[in-house]
Description:
35% of the residues lie in helices and 22% in strands. The chain has helices at residues 11-27, 54-57, 62-67, 93-104, 116-125, 182-197, 211-219, 230-239, 266-280, 282-289; strands spanning 69-74, 83-84, 90-91, 108-113, 130-131, 145-160, 174-178, 204-208, 225-229, 244-261. The strands form three sheets. A five-stranded mixed β-sheet has the order 8-7-9-6-10, sandwiched between helices. The chain has a three-stranded parallel β-sheet with strand order 4-1-5.
Amino acid sequence: MWRAAVSVRxxxxxxxxxxxxxxxxxxxxxxxxxxxxxxxxxxxEKVGGIEKVDSxxxxxxxxxxxxxxxxVGVNVPYQPNEYKDPSGKIVGFDVDLMDAVAATLGIKxxxxxxxxEKIIPTIQAGTYDVGMSSMTDSKEREQQVDFxxxxxxxxxxxxxxxxxxxxxxxxxxxxxxxxxxVEDTDEIPAKSKKxxxxxxxxxxxxxxxxxxxxxxxxxxGQVDGMSADSPVTAYGIKQSGGKIEAAGQVFDSAPYxxxxxxxxxxxxxxxxxxxxxxxxxxxxxICKNWGVQDGAITKSVVNGAES
Length: 307
C-alpha cells in the first residue's frame, strides 16, 4: 500500500540486508525472526465457487483473450499480502484476490517477481499487464498509471513489548521502515522534520530492503519501533511470538490499487470484477481467510486516491 513509486534501492544493499536477516535468524532461532518464506503464517485455503462472468470476460483486451492469462508484476515479501511459501510459490491475500478476479474473467494470473521500483516502469513499457504489490493509489502515482482499488489500509506502528514508543513523538528514537515505502519517503521524514523544527533530535530512521528485516529489527531490539501498513504490522506482531506489540492506533488510511497502464480499459474491467466479487460475498470470504477484513471495501473504483 504505502510503497513509494520511485526507488534508490541497490542490488548490493539488497543482498547485504538479506544476508544480515539470514544470519540473525540462524543464530537467534528462538527470538521470533520472520522469514521471506512463511510456514507458520495463516493457512488460508482458496475460496471456491468462483465462476467466469461472460459479460466481463467479453471486455478483455485481445492480448489477454488470446493468451488466456494476465501477467502480474509483484514484489515480495510483504506478508500477509504477497510472499513465498516454503516451496517458493508466491501466495497471500493479494494473490488469492487476483486469482479470483482472473477466474471471474475466465483467465489465469501469472505472477512475475520484480523489484518494487521496476513495477510501474515495466507496466508503462507493456511487459506487465498489472502491478500488484500493496501499492497505495495516490494522486502522484495516478500521473503515471491508473489504479483499480481493492482494499483500504492505514499506517500502524509496532514496538517491543513493554517498551512504548509514541508515533507522534518519536524524536531521537530509532524507527525501522521498509525502503521505498511511504513510511520511508514521506511519513518518517515529515515527523522527523517536526522534531528538528522544534529543536528536538531527529528520528533515526532505519531503512531495510525487506519488511521482514525491518520487523526483525524490532524483535531483536535493534530499533525502538517500526512503521508499516496496518495489515503488515498486524501480521508481524502475530508472527513475533509475543515479542512485539502495536504502538498507537491505525492512521492515514488510504486505498490499495492494482496498477495498469494509463488510460487502459483494464482498469475499469479489474474494478468491475472486484465489485462482482464484493457483491457476491466472495471478496469478504477471501479477506476473512487472511484475517484482513478490517480493510475490506464495499466499492471498487478506478483512481480513488484521496491525496
